[in-house]
């Protein structure tokens, strides 16, 4: 019963949720053979190249590996530092 | 007749490949099919004991491959389940005794006289696994709702796709429905979502499996147990029938549901 109450009132994710989240990351790494460290390096290089051509908001850049079915995708969301930002 | 060849594999050991092979084989035979189960785990023979045929082995797969007997002589007929045959693995040899092309040759020879050939793959991704998938028309990947088993299943699916044999169909074995309800076990939906292949069946955790294995009688020979029924359903799906997945949650009355909520912390 105490376990049940602990779970009811705790903000901790359940162990099943935790397992699924861990698996999601592990499977993406296994399938693409890209380590989190390599992804970090890729992100740095990508930002450098893009910055040569356009001004970007490098703090807000998001680069992630995601999956759709058994296919992996590299999604890069790169906000361009627009004129409205310059105004301030 | 031209048999369909199905290989049962998993990557990780101990998830239920041999149990599944024996039970699906028995269920298919019970439905009137002629079925041969081949144990491709050379050096670690086990399908014989799960089927209760260990005392009747004279020749094995390696004897047939190396020509010490005719293939027929290595086929053990199950006396209790008409139509079911076992080709046992060799216990005293290593996995290099058989090659993928040997397996293809053996299966080609068997194919005309049977409806189904089920191949029990060894764990791992080496020679034994390559042997087991070489002749397969279809591959079944079996896993448990558990991190390491799902990860290995994903790796196997990748290898099968690379061999252009994939993506295969999935069996989730030993699902403990109560633990899923308590959110302490990955659900079948989540496993399917992660692996992204077609689901062939869900086999619930069931102590009856151990009891029937102790006796050397596949649990699918009668469908009084949940696991037995799940294996029978898998066999029917392989035969092309549309069978709904077991409703493991259903048939609970309000009172039972109520007590199960309040009893959940205690055990």
Features:
A: 88 residues, alpha+beta, two-stranded antiparallel ribbon, 2 strands, 16% strand, B: 267 residues, alpha/beta, 8 strands
Task: Describe this entry's structure for a reader.
- The complex is a heterodimer of chains A (88) and B (267).
- The model of chain A has no long low-confidence stretch (mean pLDDT 82).
- With 88 residues, chain A is an alpha+beta fold.
- Chain A contains 4 helices and 2 strands; from the N terminus they run αααββα.
- Chain A is 53% helix and 16% strand.
- Chain B is α/β, with parallel strands linked by helices.
- Chain B has one domain (4-263): 3-Layer(aba) Sandwich (Rossmann fold).
- Chain B has 11 helices and 8 strands.
- An 8-stranded mixed beta sheet of chain B has the order 3-4-2-5-1-6-7-8, sandwiched between helices.
- In chain B, a hairpin with a 6-residue loop joins strand 3 (76-77) and strand 4.
- The N and C termini of chain B lie far apart (52 Å).
- In chain B, 48% of the residues are buried.
Which percent band covers the strand fraction of chain B? 15-25%
Terminal Cα separation of chain B, in Å?
52 Å
Side by side, the strands of the main sheet of chain B go 3-4-2-5-1-6-7-8
Alpha carbon gap, first and last residue of chain A: 57 Å
Q: What level of helicity do the residues of chain A show?
A: 40-55%
Helix content of chain B: 25-40%
- Largest pleated sheet of chain A: 2 strands, antiparallel
- Integer-rounded radius of gyration of chain B: 19 Å
Strand content of chain A: 15-25%
The secondary-structure element order of chain B is EHEHHEEHEHEHEHHEHHH
Provide the structure class of chain A.
alpha+beta
| Low-confidence regions of chain A | none
């Amino acid at each position: 019963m105490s376990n049940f109450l602990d779970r009811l009132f705790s903000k901790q994710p359940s162990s099943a949720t935790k397992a699924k989240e861990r698996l999601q990351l592990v499977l993406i790494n296994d399938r693409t053979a890209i380590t989190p460290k390599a992804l970090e390096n890729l992100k740095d290089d990508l930002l450098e190249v893009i910055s040569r051509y356009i001004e970007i908001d490098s703090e807000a850049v998001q680069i992630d590996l995601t999956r759709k079915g058994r296919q992996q995708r590299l999604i890069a969301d790169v906000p361009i530092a627009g004129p409205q930002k310059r105004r301030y | 007749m031209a048999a369909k060849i199905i290989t049962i594999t998993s990557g990780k050991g101990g998830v239920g490949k041999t149990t599944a092979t024996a039970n699906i084989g028995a269920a298919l035979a019970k439905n009137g099919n002629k079925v041969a189960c081949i144990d491709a785990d050379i050096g670690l023979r086990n399908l014989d004991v799960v089927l209760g045929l260990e005392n009747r082995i004279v020749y094995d797969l390696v004897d047939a491959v190396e020509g010490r007997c005719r293939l027929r002589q290595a086929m053990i007929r199950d006396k209790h389940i008409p139509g079911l045959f076992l080709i046992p693995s060799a216990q005293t040899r290593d996995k290099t005794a058989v090659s993928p092309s040997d397996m293809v040759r053996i299966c080609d020879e068997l194919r005309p006289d049977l409806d189904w050939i089920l191949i029990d793959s060894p764990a791992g991704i080496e020679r034994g696994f390559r042997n087991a998938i070489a002749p397969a028309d279809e591959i079944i990947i079996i896993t448990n709702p558990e991190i390491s088993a799902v990860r290995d299943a994903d790796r196997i699916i990748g290898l099968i796709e690379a061999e252009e044999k994939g993506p295969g169909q999935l069996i989730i074995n030993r699902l403990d429905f109560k633990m899923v309800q308590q959110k302490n076990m990955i659900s079948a939906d989540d496993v399917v979502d992660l692996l992204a292949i077609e689901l062939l069946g869900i086999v619930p955790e069931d102590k009856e499996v151990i009891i029937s294995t102790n006796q050397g009688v596949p649990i699918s020979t009668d469908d009084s147990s949940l696991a037995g029924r799940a294996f029978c359903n898998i066999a029917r799906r392989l035969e092309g029938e549309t069978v709904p997945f077991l409703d493991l949650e259903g048939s609970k009355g309000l009172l039972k549901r109520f007590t199960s909520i309040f009893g959940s912390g205690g055990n």
